[in-house]
Amino acid sequence: MCYNEKVSIALTIIGYVATLWIYIRTRNSKVAAGLAFLFALELIQTVQYVFASEQLPDLLTCSINIHRTKFASSCDTYTNKVFSLLSFLHFCFQPLFTHMINAGLAKDYLQRVYFRITQRFCILGGFLLFMRYFLSFSPMYNSLLFQNSTNIIGTITSSLNAEWFRGHLLCSFSRSTSHPVSFPFIGELKNLGTSIPLADPSYFLPSTSSHSFLLYAPYLLDFNGSMTMIGRLVVLAGVGPMLSFVWPGSNHEEGNWFCLFSLSQLLIVVVTLRRQLFSSAPESQLLGANSNNSTKLE
């Protein structure tokens, strides 16, 4: 969640303007591509806020057996479903583009190779995680279909639904916080939730915890620049999962806190590339120095 649609639009504009500026100054395509993907979540959430169901959180006591008729107008709209799924797709491949940025910021050849290999693991992990949505249509792979739950987005307290996003419906919903908060020029703060039907995790199908492993474990294993990597890990984990744990909400809302993740990545990129971004030297000289260093290392 990023407050509401106004804030999401503002962050989208800021993110893409900053990404374009970074690319113009550095010609670093990997960093630019990574940032562009991460800030796409702000754009996705903007549309989610506009088309999100506002009825869903207030009607959780209704039986799941009647949701196809009673909630058709709120959750079964094409736009709601498409952007709910896009939000989950973005979640699945956030580690890939995060480490694409790390590859672009790598200081030497070995570190670049390390993050190239890491990206391949992230492609496989993201693909397997996303495939759980399509396997969820089979009762053989989705035990939630047999659960006599009275919560149409899944039993939040159930051990079967302890992971982010998983629910009975493909739906985005927004709700006001328990104690409504409003800011001048911004408006009321709203929690954005996304419910995605997912197959049961198994030996071959990873749970959403694979996201945290693929995203953060490579920072701990990069011994070539360990202190720098640990510093990035602290920043990224602090504004992502740690913040979502502190803020009251359901498992369907916690995954949407990664809209702030892109801002922290932007900060890391600006600090790391500050010489190229803010130097008054001609761009050709900076690029030439970087290419010469890369040639020697490779």
Please give the count of helices. 14
Helix content: 55-70%
**Poorly predicted ranges (pLDDT <50, ≥5 residues)?**
57-72, 148-160, 284-289, 291-298
Question: Could you say which overall geometry the principal axes of the C-alpha atoms support?
Answer: globular
Q: Helix- and strand-based class? A: mainly alpha
User: How many DSSP-defined strands?
Assistant: 4
| SSE pattern | HHHHHHHEEEEHHHHHHH
Domain count: 1
Q: Strand share of the residues?
A: 5-15%
Q: Biggest β-sheet: count, sense, barrel?
A: 2 strands, antiparallel
How would you describe the overall organization of this protein?
The chain is mostly helical and 298 residues long. The chain has one domain (5-291). The chain contains 14 helices and four strands. The radius of gyration is 21 Å and the shape is globular. The N and C termini lie far apart (42 Å).
Q: Which helices and strands appear, and what pairs or packs with what?
A:
Layout: H1 5-26, H2 29-51, H3 67-70, H4 72-75, H5 78-92, H6 94-105, H7 109-135, E1 171-176, E2 182-183, E3 187-188, E4 190-195, H8 209-221, H9 226-239, H10 241-246, H11 251-254, H12 261-272, H13 274-278, H14 283-297
Antiparallel strand pairs: 1-4, 2-3
